[in-house]
Amino acid sequence: MDFKLASTVPDMTEYTNGYTFKFTDTLSKGLTLNGTAEGGTFAPTVKIGDTTLTKDLDYTATYTTDSDTGKTALEVNMMNFKNLHQNDAGKAITVEYSATLNKDAEVGSTGNQNDAKIEYSNDPASNGTGTTKEDKTYTYTFNFDIEKVNAVDHNDKLKGAQFELQRENGTKINLVKVSDGVFRPAKGTETVADDKTVVTDNNGKLQFTGLKEGTYKVKEIKAPTGYNLLKDPITVTISATYDENTGILESWKVNNANAQGTTVPVITVENNKGVTLPETGGMGTVLFTVFGVAIVALGATWYVKSNRKSRHAA
Questions:
Q1: 193 vs 21: CA distance, rounded Å
Q2: Which of 171, 183, 219, 247 has the fewest CB atoms within 10 Å distance of its CB?
Q3: Coil/strand/helix, residue 89
Q4: φ and ψ at 197, to 5 degrees?
Q5: At 283, which helix (H) or strand (E)?
Q6: SS3 (DSSP) at 314
Q7: How many Cβ atoms sit within 10 Å of the Cβ of residue 100?
Q8: How many distinct helices (H) and strands (E) make up the chain?
């Protein structure tokens, strides 16, 4: 997930004691800050206008994670701001960074909250500071379950069915294992899960989480032993509605799912026992073709014999 904090470089002419200007943001425990390094620093992109600033020359970027709440507080503190950037007054100043949804990410209506604000100098005669009103943003993620069952008896849950999650255009999405039977899209250089592990468990369940709104395809790569492989991928569409004023999620749903909302939507997938029939041009087609030719040949022989008998009688 990409985040962007934005403000405007203030007029610092009257501030003879320097000028404090610091971005702060608190990430929920469901978000892991990217680009971190030893010593509690991270690597955002900070710009004034179109100019990219230099870390540890123009600003410092630090973070701490609360061991009790799991929340991460980050700070981007401008250095020697008045002397370096007084002439940039009125220009946009932005901070961009990214975070990855983790195993603690809230799914659906709760969302994963960010609380951002700016601390700034507000008294030219002293070192006094003030803060802007806290700006809250929400990152939403969605999920769904595949439940594999015997077509004749839905109480018979089928384990070992291997699936592939795809984008709408059929492109494979690399996955990361969150926990047993639960996978999410991989980010950056994360270690991708072995395809053979993306299978239904003993309860016939396989969950895909950490998903954005949109349309996906779920393709069965390997059927449970003794069952037919699904011929076509399953199309899954996640849709959501938001409050126009606050941006807070109001509702969401997954097409063809048995459960919606705060519970995990479940898409039941039936499998039939048997052997998959050969495709067109396979051995089955060849056998039928040879058999058909044999019938035509026999018919021709009978026709010749019949004509001979007719001529003899004459």
A1: 43
A2: 171
A3: coil
A4: -90, -10
A5: helix 283-313
A6: coil
A7: 19
A8: 2, 22
